[in-house]
Amino acid sequence: MLVHNIQITRYTNSTGTQSLVGSGRPNCIGAQCYIMIKPLLPVILYFGSCCAYSAPLLPPPSEERFRENLKTLSSDTYEGRKPSTAGGKKTIATIRKEFEKAGLSPGNGNSYLQATPIASLTTERAEVHLSNAGESNPMEHGTDILAFARTLKTRISVVESQLVFVGFGVIAPEYDWNDYQDVNVRGKTVIILSNDPGHLTQDRSLFLGKGVTYYAKDSYKYEEAERQGATAAFIIHDTRLSNLDWAKHVAKFNKARQVLNDSEGTAGNLLIQGYISAATTARTMALSGVDYELELRAAMRLGFKAKPLASSITLNVNSALAYVTSYNVLGLIPGLERPEEVVIYIAHWDHLGIDTKLEGDQIFNGAKDNAAGIASLIELAYLFKSAANNQRSVLIMAVTAEESGLLGSYYYTKNPVVPLRQTVGVINLDMMNLNGKTRDVLVHGFGNSALMDTAIHEAIVKKQGRVVNPFGRLEAGIAYRNDGFSFNRSGVPTIGLASGSEHVDNGSEWMDAQADDYFEHRYHQVADEYSDSMDVSGALLDVMALYLTGQVLANSSEFAQWYDGKEFKPLRDAQFAP
Description:
Layout: E1 10-12, E2 18-20, E3 27-29, E4 32-36, E5 42-45, H1 63-73, H2 86-102, E6 105-106, E7 113-132, E8 135-139, E9 145-149, E10 155-165, E11 171-172, E12 177-178, E13 189-193, H3 218-227, E14 232-237, H4 246-253, E15 257-260, H5 263-266, E16 272-277, H6 278-287, H7 292-299, E17 307-333, E18 338-348, E19 353-354, E20 363-364, H8 367-387, E21 392-399, H9 407-414, E22 423-429, E23 440-444, H10 450-463, E24 467-470, H11 484-488, E25 494-498, H12 507-521, H13 537-554, H14 569-575
Parallel strand pairs: 10-13, 13-14, 14-16, 18-21, 18-22, 22-25, 23-24
Antiparallel strand pairs: 1-2, 3-4, 4-5, 6-17, 7-8, 7-15, 7-17, 9-16, 10-17, 11-12, 17-21, 19-20, 23-25
Helix pairs in contact: 1-8, 2-8, 8-13, 10-13
């Protein structure tokens, strides 16, 4: 086979990072060898003598099939793909059919489906009374406080539970931080500041400064309160720590809440959770002679001490419960040498359904979010099945109920078809690049794990000749708002690709403008629809990047581990403990 001489060139991005964009030597993974003829135009060649396995030429991702699946899944026929609706059920059936067509084996024993039980809780009535020095004063639900049942019961009561201000409610050994030191909150009600200690000061010496950490998540704060034995927990809504005012916050959260209908929904000591306004908090703390502003500043300093208050709270919450079952869809390519070890790809198939209160268009089609991710999963299924030469298994999974709180992915981590200690790593696909090819790739989770970083470098830098950078905008907390977080919080390192920032033809400013336009006019709106004008070449290039990354993981002898100092490292270490 004739191979032309190829000049090695480099380009420099806006950060000054240099990257190889041409190579005169083929790079091999399995039976496929890749040569960069010029930037961003990978040509797949077959060299029979250079590789460990012998296999036919790997076909590239299919633009026609990708477009068809993107267009179909985001069409009005699928009614916005809300779980447990007719559109949601149709979505599951379509994905299963596409997995079968691609040649994937059932990923859950003999089934392509994993049932995910979901419960919906709606607070119908909440009575809240604050007691101090023998006086009982009512709090108005929706004005002063929001209360939700944490357990699946129609009526829950908490009687005369002492209030304790616990600052940010964080225990973070890697930051030498413990807001619960020297205080016992068993049977008590904790009130907790939102976000984390670095956010308000933007001081990088405090956690990540303005960047969001795991400890800023509401879910973490409630879970930590439960671990500490609290009976109820309320997060303080202070506009200095949140981007919504109290009225908008109430409107956002005072509605049905979806949770997993499993053991966590029926047991536990934390009976009630919710939010309390900063104004109500200040008045409540003043009754105990405590200044909220002083305590807020104290909570941002290392060595903060929780403050028990002289007040107690009584809560009676009545809830309406509803139960549904949705499904994750799983397809498998068994490994040739170590099939019991698995690399996982995930993308959520659900979106927001239909809002009959809207005039005109009422369907949230979710083309970019995340029909594009599912269309990409299907292309990965074809790529891996066509090669079928990996030492480890590859599990391709479309998960449900991401928009309801990452429920499908979290349910899988609690009920994995392959033990988490045998899971090499996870790659998440969400909102693929529909604006054309980019010279760079932004990666969620880059810089967290040596194996994942190596796989990214081998696949994207060496074989595609592109620049890799970690996803910026840490203040957006994207790492804790996608399905990869379910695996991270369960100990398994996860990565995901975001759209690159430097378009091949139009540059960085143009690419930034496209992102701004999408998030302003289409994200989580009915306007997120398919168009024939979408340039899917960027998504297809990223699909190949994802495939190459997974191939490195699937043929490695290692498992992804966290770097020292990462918040989830102890969980992964425990999985591999003797």
